[in-house]
Amino acid sequence: MAGHNLKANVLFTWIAHMAALVTGFFLMPYVMRVLGDASYGQWVFINSFVAYGGLLYMGMGETICRYVSKYHGEGDSTKLNEVVTIVASVYAVGATFAFLLSVGIALLLPWISPWTGDELLEIQWVVVILGLNLSLSLLGSIYGGVLMGVRRFDLERTVGIVFDLVRVGLIIVFLHREWGLLTMALIYMVITVLENGAFMFLAWRALPELQITRKHWKYSVLKECTSFSSMALLNNFAQSLIYATDSIVIGFLMGAEAIVPYYIALRLVQFIRQPIEKVAFICMPTAGAMQSSADRGKLHKLFMQAIGVTFLLATGINLGAYFFGGDLIALWVGPGYEESHRLLVILLVATIITLPCNLLRSFLLAQGTIRFPAMIYFAEAVANLVISLALGWTMGRVGVAIGTLVPAVVLEGAVLLPVGLSILGISWVRLIREAIRPQLAPLAALAGYCLLVSPQPWAHGSWLALVGVSAGGGAVLGIAWLLVHNPPGNWWPGMVRRQEA
């Protein structure tokens, strides 16, 4: 049953991601055209600062998922409600702080920003509304965390799909260049209210015994949660530094409009990372339930399967992006963003290391090991900031991208990976033999396909060609993978057994 639930959760997560990918993919160039590069750059610049608001979750997102999963599995509703109540109280404090901070920043903007007149007024309102949106997101995320803790990813992802589509509809209907940033902020806030209302309803339906009351507030539970969440907070701070700092660095060094070519590449990387990261996110509750020595073999098997698929997808996507990423960008947002392809290739190379390491980090977190991965991630974030600033002065956006790549490869690949494997009790030899080596033949087949098809004129210049080439590459990779994992020699005995049955 657990295996069935895991497969269903992965399926719903991928469906939700595909819906978000399709809507986000086609919505971004539309918003860019309506707002223009200057206003769109301002929107990205402001939201890069808002991304630091994720620190107000204080690592409690991982806490609620882990402990709800643990106590729900044990049937201990009292402890479950105590954890949820503690997280709710922490989020209430964070939500209040977020809103007050946004109001304070909005009032200071006339003295600390270059904006004036109507542009200044619009930005002030945008900052306040995005602060309110963050506050509402904090409070509502409690219920999304409960759904994930009880492994109802199907419900959580369905809500995401529905409101992604609603967001697209509202933007298409209401967005115009005049007061466009304010319109975007209002639409995002409306969606947050509706989405979190749905999470609340579904959480109580999935877990009728759920209660958030004063009697469940206990200081001992707060200490237990914060001891776990403190390192998760450090991990989230590092994540904010890595994913938001690049846009801020470029904005300060070259201006908000200069962010757009970099953000095009970064957004594509995010589209690509998300479905693979969701696999790690889904595996965490399952891995957390496998803490006994009797389940050690199952844990290792799950890890090997997941990291093999992660490596296969990350490397395969890198091959496709190298040969056809320029076509994708030109068709997606139009001409004039040639540098975005170079940036895309640099940023994607890092994912061959970071995505498997993200999966490893998820398994370590599920087993209660969070301090070491968090410290490595924080060191990577600081190195990212320092190198990006240094190279950004001399090499521009490419230097900022290299500043993201180098720390990821060095600290995650050379430090986190070997130590993390040792903690899980998995040797390098086993990792290569069971997870990496089986993917090499399919990847070689895909590389050969790209080398053969890329020089052909018919493979470029239209969506039809790009979709066809991508489908062909996926077919080559998939067939090669099946041949490796189920050689033709095994087909005939299987057919004989089915006929005899």
Task: Please give a structural write-up.
With 501 residues, the chain is an all-alpha fold. The chain folds into two domains: 217 residues, no CATH class; 211 residues, no CATH class. The chain contains 15 helices and no strands. Helix 2 packs parallel to helix 4 and helix 13 packs antiparallel against helix 14. The longest helix has 49 residues.
Terminal CA distance: 25 Å
Oligomer: single chain
> What fraction of residues sit in β-strands?
under 5%
* Strand count: 0
Low-confidence stretches: none
Structural class: mainly alpha
- What is the residue-mean pLDDT, rounded to a whole number? 84
Shape: globular
Gyration radius from CA atoms, angstroms: 23 Å
How much helix, percentage-wise, in residues?
Answer: over 70%
The number of domains: 2
* Count of DSSP H/I helices: 15
Listing every helix as H and every strand as E from the N terminus to the C terminus, the arrangement reads HHHHHHHHHHHHHHH
Quick one: biggest sheet?
Answer: none
